[in-house]
Design goal:
- With 299 residues, the chain is an alpha+beta fold.
- Helix content is 38%, strand content 18%.
- It has a 5-stranded antiparallel β-sheet with strand order 2-1-9-8-7, with helices on both faces. A two-stranded antiparallel ribbon has the order 3-6.
- α2 (40-52) packs across α4.
- The N and C termini lie close together (7 Å).
- The relative contact order is 0.22.
Length: 299
């Protein structure tokens, strides 16, 4: 797998585990990585759990106003206010990675509740520092920008070194996890252990509707189902997901990459994420029993 990352000039961290036999393999699987929009998976999972507990009504309406419009896909890029249900906000957050929809969910679900869910699932090295809006605010604070307008004006002129120094790109100072913990999260969703069967099935359904198929999805034939979530920041390209083969094999995989350049379009890196994931899955030794499987952190 490392050779795949080296070939496209990025650092890569990966973990893959078979959801049947428990066999696993990794590359830097226990090193901290920036989550970016991968954080929307535990967010929507907590929402689904609150729906099931009757704490929130899926049809309740939320309104994305100027304060929530951060730019980007979905309603984040709208020029006017948009209103939709909590259920549709979850669909937008996972299908097109809508940051505005995700922030509205953070406000309703509660940041502390998402953090509690992560702890309940045993993800001890997963840290969620705030909503997407909070992460953007951290960038403005790091730059010393007085408001959003100043941030938008000054950010394009930052040097590469100044961008790389922002805390949003530092796993020690932003929302972060490890590849191994992310496959553990996926495993718990796949096996209906992260919540009720209905809650987990809904999260899987929404992740299966993700429109971005240029990373994990690029390496697998159309008959292979992939339900996943990407994460993207300057220099960062991530994706976590479960690959389900027609014969019944299911594997959870988490791939995180970091480039030394700030190109906004890196299709070669997108494809490498899928190639590395497929290589990892094909390398897993399924003959090992769960009790003795040992994933490699450096293979």
């Amino acid at each position: 797998m490392k050779a795949v990352f080296d070939a496209v000039g990025v650092r890569g961290w990966l973990h893959a585990r078979c959801l049947g036999c428990g066999g696993e393999i990794g590359c830097g699987a226990d090193e901290p990585v920036v989550l970016s929009s991968v954080v929307k998976v535990p967010l929507v999972l907590e929402l689904a759990r609150q729906f099931g507990a009757g704490q929130l009504d899926p049809a309740d309406r939320v309104r994305s106003t100027a304060a929530y419009r951060l730019g980007g896909p979905g309603t984040s890029g709208c020029r006017d206010d948009v209103e939709f249900s909590l259920r549709d906000a979850a669909y937008l957050a996972l299908s097109v990675s809508d940051n505005s929809a995700a922030d509205l969910l953070f406000d309703r679900v509660g940041l502390d509740n998402v953090r509690s869910l992560v702890r309940e699932l045993g993800l001890e090295r997963t840290r969620i520092v705030g909503s997407l809006r909070d992460l953007l605010a951290s960038m403005a604070e790091d730059m010393g920008a007085a408001d959003a307008a100043e941030f938008a004006r000054r950010y394009p002129a930052l040097s590469d070194a100044e961008v790389f120094a922002l805390r949003i790109l530092d796993p020690a100072r932003t929302s972060a996890s490890t590849p191994r913990e992310m496959t553990r999260l996926l495993e718990s969703i796949a096996h209906d252990r992260a919540g009720s069967p209905q809650a987990c099935a809904w999260v899987r359904e929404l992740m299966g509707l993700q429109l971005n198929q240029h990373r994990l999805g690029s390496a697998f034939a159309s008959g292979v189902r992939v339900w996943s979530k990407t994460g993207t920041l300057p220099s960062v390209r991530n994706e976590i997901g479960v690959v389900e083969y027609p014969g019944g094999l299911r594997c959870a995989v988490a791939v995180f990459t970091r480039a030394d350049v700030l190109d906004t379009r890196m299709p070669h890196v997108d494809r490498a994420i899928g190639e590395a994931a497929r290589a990892a899955i094909e390398t897993i030794d399924h003959r090992r029993p769960i009790s003795t499987c040992q994933g490699s952190a450096s293979s």
